[in-house]
User: Which sequence fits this backbone?
């Protein structure tokens, strides 16, 4: 981390100058990004640009992890006496091994499988990497080291993520004013559910049940979102046109989601802003415009 910070805003450029793998990283971090990059390579249409931009926030945030990981592995390899070229290779391997890779040669068999297998492995690259790390640790390390590694991956990581998310919500004024007992009960349950969802998400076939534990309920495989979003929009339209139901905020967001699913336009920020605007009208924090909560 210190080495990455030493280079400041030039850290990414410096790493990309050393590593061909890292130069392509924003296009190969995940299978879905890699497939889209291959499909629209060289295209200059508005839709191609929108589809490419849709993943930009995700890939940029991932680089905040990839760059320090690469630097750490690179400096460690140099300290151990490896040549510069060997250090670059080892740093590339460290990033792919710990963060995953969407390049065809780096994907697991289930991610490269038939259409039915791919249907249930959308955005699975990172979770598959986490599962592989846990399994390899259990098979290759001593009992205590394996237990520590597995607990870190399966319990500590999702609990920390939950804690950071809730701390951010509290900082933005979006935390409920619970008493002390309710506070601990709420967050212990939340941390437990976060761990169960993460662990279920690592296993192909089982990961579909992870979304069933979320606030939104099970909405089918991500790859089927076009049809689930369209079904919700059609139900809303039926109610508005033939059953005298009101045109609500939820219906508007359903229509926008269906439009985004079919066109590839990133609409989540639009829906969050709509929901956040109404929350502000009800007296919530102005940060709701960004978070939608």
Assistant:
């Amino acid at each position: 981390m210190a080495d990455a910070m030493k280079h400041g805003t030039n850290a990414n450029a410096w790493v990309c100058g050393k590593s061909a793998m890292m130069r392509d990283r924003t296009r190969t971090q995940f299978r879905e990004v890699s497939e889209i990059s291959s499909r629209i390579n060289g295209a200059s249409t508005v839709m191609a640009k929108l589809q490419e931009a849709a993943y930009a926030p995700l890939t940029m945030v991932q680089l905040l992890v990839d760059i320090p990981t690469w630097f750490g592995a690179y400096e460690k390899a140099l300290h151990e006496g490896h040549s510069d070229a060997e250090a670059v290779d080892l740093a590339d391997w460290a990033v792919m091994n710990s963060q995953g890779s969407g390049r065809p040669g780096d994907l697991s068999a289930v991610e490269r499988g038939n259409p039915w297998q791919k249907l249930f492995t959308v955005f699975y690259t990172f979770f598959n990497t986490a599962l592989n790390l846990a399994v390899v640790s259990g098979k290759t390390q001593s009992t205590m080291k394996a237990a520590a590694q597995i607990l870190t991956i399966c319990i500590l990581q999702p609990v920390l993520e939950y804690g950071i998310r809730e701390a951010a919500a509290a900082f933005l004024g979006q935390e409920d004013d619970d008493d002390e007992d309710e506070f601990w009960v709420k967050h212990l349950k939340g941390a437990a559910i976060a761990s169960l969802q993460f662990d279920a998400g690592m296993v192909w076939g089982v990961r579909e049940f992870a979304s069933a534990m979320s606030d939104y309920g099970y909405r089918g495989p991500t790859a089927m979102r076009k049809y689930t979003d369209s079904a919700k929009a059609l139900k809303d339209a039926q109610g508005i046109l033939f059953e005298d139901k009101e045109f609500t905020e939820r219906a508007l967001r359903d229509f926008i989601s269906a439009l985004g699913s079919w066109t590839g336009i990133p609409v989540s920020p639009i829906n969050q802003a709509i929901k956040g605007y109404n929350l502000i009208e009800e007296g919530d924090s102005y940060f709701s415009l960004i978070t939608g909560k």
Notes: The chain is about 70% helix and 0% strand. The CA atoms of residues 163 and 187 lie 8 Å apart. Residues 2-107 form one domain. The chain has three domains: 2-107, 113-218, 219-293.
